[in-house]
UniProtKB/TrEMBL annotation:
This is Methylglutaconyl-CoA hydratase, mitochondrial. One of its GO terms (biological process) is fatty acid beta-oxidation. Transmembrane segments: none annotated. It comes from the Eukaryota.
Length: 252
């Protein structure tokens, strides 16, 4: 079904420290091989905050020799999220800065409240986005605009984020402060009835195809399609269509 991973480090605005990264990595690792998982939603349990980025208080105590390995760990953890075989949705109900936005960029779909604030602000600290931001932002909104946002360390709200293609859906925030999460849940429920094997190979085909030329991409699509042909679910889909009933897919 739908799995929700909630960040809850309220005293530090969900800032990414060594311990939180370790917990995230462990959670993602457990989800990788769980065939019952159909969609993963990343959200915050802290009102008004999605994730404030790296924990700068912890960073200030690090020796310069430790910084590189910490950033590598953050990049690897966020990459593990991006490589989850099932659809992932980031529900951004509050501020997502630096590593927080990089975390959201690693998800397949982003939903945000209109009041949410988002930005890659690392250049303000004389560093650059180091957990995928310089690569995923241009792939999401285009090279020129990504450069502008990173060079200026500009922060955008949900409405502007939607207009530039940074997020897929923008919603008005509600009194509970979880409007983006509710929209993400509704989206996840739209995914649930579809064939689980098909969902996984569709994601694989799109992800791999986006990194290559069209001819190679079409070959990837062909190879991915071939994985669905021998499945019991494909036969069930045809049978359900013939019998005019909802299919009962088992991911086989």
């Amino acid at each position: 079904g739908i799995v929700v991973l909630g960040l809850n480090r309220s005293h530090a605005k969900n800032a990414l420290n060594k311990n939180l990264l370790k917990m995230m990595s462990k959670a993602v690792d457990a989800l990788k091989s769980d065939k019952k998982v159909r969609t993963v939603i990343f959200r915050s349990e802290v009102p008004g905050i999605f994730c404030a980025g790296a924990d700068l208080k912890e960073r200030a105590k690090m020796h310069s020799s430790e910084v590189g390995s910490f950033v590598s760990k953050a990049r690897a953890t966020i990459n593990e999220m991006a490589n989850l075989p099932v659809p992932t949705i980031a529900a951004i109900d509050g501020t997502a800065l630096g590593g927080g936005l990089e975390l959201a960029l690693a998800c397949d779909i982003r939903v945000a409240a209109s009041s949410a604030k988002m930005g890659l602000v690392e250049t303000k600290l004389a560093i650059i986005p180091g957990a995928g931001g310089t690569q995923r932002l241009p792939r999401t909104i285009g090279v020129s605009l990504a450069k502008e946002l990173i060079f200026s360390a500009r922060i955008v709200d949900g409405e502007e984020a939607k207009s530039i293609g940074l997020i897929s859906h923008v919603v008005e925030q509600n009194e509970a402060g979880d409007a983006a999460y509710r929209r993400a849940l509704a989206l996840a429920r739209e995914f649930l009835p579809q064939g689980p094997v098909a969902m996984r190979v569709a994601k694989l085909a799109i992800n791999q195809g986006m990194e290559v030329d069209l001819v190679t991409g079409l070959a990837i699509e062909e190879a991915c399609y071939a994985q669905t042909i021998p499945t019991k679910d494909r036969i069930e889909g045809l049978l359900a269509f013939k019998e005019k009933r909802p299919p009962r897919y088992k991911g086989e």
